[in-house]
Design goal:
The protein has 2 helices and 28 strands. By secondary structure, the chain is mainly beta. It folds into 3 domains: about 35-130, Immunoglobulin-like; about 135-235, Sandwich (Immunoglobulin-like), CATH 2.60.40; about 240-345, Sandwich (Immunoglobulin-like), CATH 2.60.40.1220. The strands form 8 sheets. Strands 9, 10, 12, 13 and 14 form a 5-stranded antiparallel β-sheet that branches. Strands 1-2-5-4 form a 4-stranded antiparallel β-sheet, with no helix packed on it. The radius of gyration is 32 Å and the shape is elongated.
Length: about 350
């Protein structure tokens, strides 16, 4: 065999073997175990902190982007921390601005993931002090929500309004809604919860789910555990979106919000004829309207004076134009709920059918 050809084949075999050797195994059960912090150096609770470098060792290699986005340091210092990744170790150099006798809290958000995309099971807090003691105040509570939440804590002396201030501290709820702030100094605080996806941003009441406890002010001297918050989102004012007339005798009105069960609608009319109404059977944002006398014109106006819930006016007077069908609705009547294979054929000459 030609020596050059033999050498060429040997090289191909060697390269192929190397590629096969470093390929990750395929298949197998997907890793769903949350990463764990195995150690911190210096350890959590260190006082008289001299070095501003903290080395964290995890049970997994960590995702660099989520780690950089999810690490928070309070109080807010000048600049951003320097983060270096070395295998399962993460080396964090704190930014400048640390003063004497200061407690610094490093928080790792739940949104931090390992290399397999699995998030931390709960947020991690590490506290250090440049003085002789670490603040020991604690605020605990629960957020009631169907989605993960972030909790903002404000030093009351530093914030005029929760609407315009950035939080001094941020925590996150666990799967059961529990949250906890540790290493707090004594003083007065205000608290606010928001959906976790907007953590760190200023409150926008129209776009965010948020909530505050019954008394948002907290005076802390050691441990405060009675915080309860429910998330909600402010609804836009009620608006009539559109109307449609389906037959000579009935139509539908559609709104932008769900309609409360006990609303009243005053002076509901089509043209000059008063209408009855009832809630739509499968759309909480709609009502069905009916008339006694058939409508024969091509177009009409549907109007009402207002919509009220108890004594509160939800929507003031509204008017909307609808087109009237030229033919009566001839679709068969069918039972939609509960499900049943039943249809009723209209018979104008027959007796009325009693529905029970």
């Amino acid at each position: 065999m030609n020596s050059k050809l033999f050498l060429y084949l040997i090289c191909i075999v060697f390269i192929s073997w190397q590629c096969a050797a470093i390929a990750p195994p395929s298949g197998g059960k997907k890793d769903t175990t949350p990463p764990e912090l195995l150690s911190a150096n210096p350890p959590n609770g260190t006082v008289r902190l001299l070095e501003q470098v903290i080395e964290l060792t995890f049970s997994e290699y960590m995702d660099e982007k989520s780690f950089a986005d999810g690490i928070r340091i309070v109080p807010v210092l000048e600049g951003e921390p320097l983060i270096i990744f070395k295998g399962d170790r993460v080396i964090v150099t704190l930014p400048g601005g640390i003063k004497n006798d200061m407690t610094v809290v490093l928080t790792l958000s739940r949104s931090i993931k390992d290399e397999h995309g699995v998030e931390l099971a709960k947020p991690i807090q590490l506290a250090y002090s440049t003085g002789d003691i670490i603040d020991t105040g604690v605020i605990k509570g629960r957020v009631y929500s169907t989605q993960p939440a972030a909790v903002y804590l404000f030093n009351e002396d530093n914030s005029d309004s929760l609407l315009v201030s950035k939080p001094d501290y941020i925590s996150e709820t666990e799967d059961d809604g529990l949250f906890e702030f540790n290493y707090l100094s004594s003083g007065k605080y205000k608290i606010l919860a928001v959906e976790r996806g907007v953590a760190g941003l200023k409150l926008d009441q129209k776009r965010m789910f948020f909530g505050v406890p019954f008394d948002s002010g907290i005076e802390l001297d050691s441990i405060f555990t009675a915080v309860r918050i429910r998330l909600f989102k402010e609804q836009e004012p009620l608006r009539l979106l559109r109307g449609e007339w389906n037959d000579w005798y009935w139509g539908q009105l559609y709104f932008n919000n769900d309609l409360d069960e006990d609303i009243t609608i005053e002076e509901l009319k089509i043209g000059n004829q008063e209408m009855d109404w009832f809630y739509h059977f499968d759309d909480k944002k709609a009502i069905i309207v009916t008339v006694q006398d058939s409508i024969y014109s091509n177009k009409e106006q549907i109007s009402f004076k207002n919509i009220k819930f108890e004594k509160t006016i939800l929507l003031d007077s509204s008017v909307i134009n609808v087109s009237i069908p030229t033919e009566i609705d001839s679709h068969y009547l069918s039972l939609t709920s509960p499900e049943a294979k039943l249809s009723i054929t209209p018979n104008k000459s027959g007796p009325p059918i009693k529905m029970v």
